[in-house]
Amino acid sequence: KLICDKLYYGTRTPAKDFTAPTVAGWTAEVPGNEVLTYDPDEARRLWARAEAISKF
Which Gene3D superfamilies match (predicted)? Predict the structure, then answer.
C-alpha cells in the first residue's frame, strides 16, 4: 500500500492476492487467500520459527 500511495500517488490498487482487484476475473473467494493478508507481526513470528529450524 505504501508503494502504491507514495510511488504512484494513490493511483494504483495494491494486490492482496495473486492478482489485483483491477484484473478481469479477480475474485476475493479464492480458498486460502486469508494467508495473503499483510501482517508484519505474523511474518516476524514465522521468520523466527523458520530461523530456529534452519538459519538463512
Answer: Dipeptide-binding Protein, Domain 3
- The residue length of the chain stands at 56
Query: In Å, how far are 2, 19, 22 from 34, measured between CA atoms?
Result: 20, 14, 19
Report d(CA 52, CA 33) in Å as an integer. 26
Q: Provide the residue-wise pLDDT of the chain in tens; the chain has 56 residues.
A: 899 999 999 998 877 677 777 788 888 787 887 777 888 999 999 999 999 998 87
Question: Does the pTM of the predicted model rise above 0.70?
Answer: no
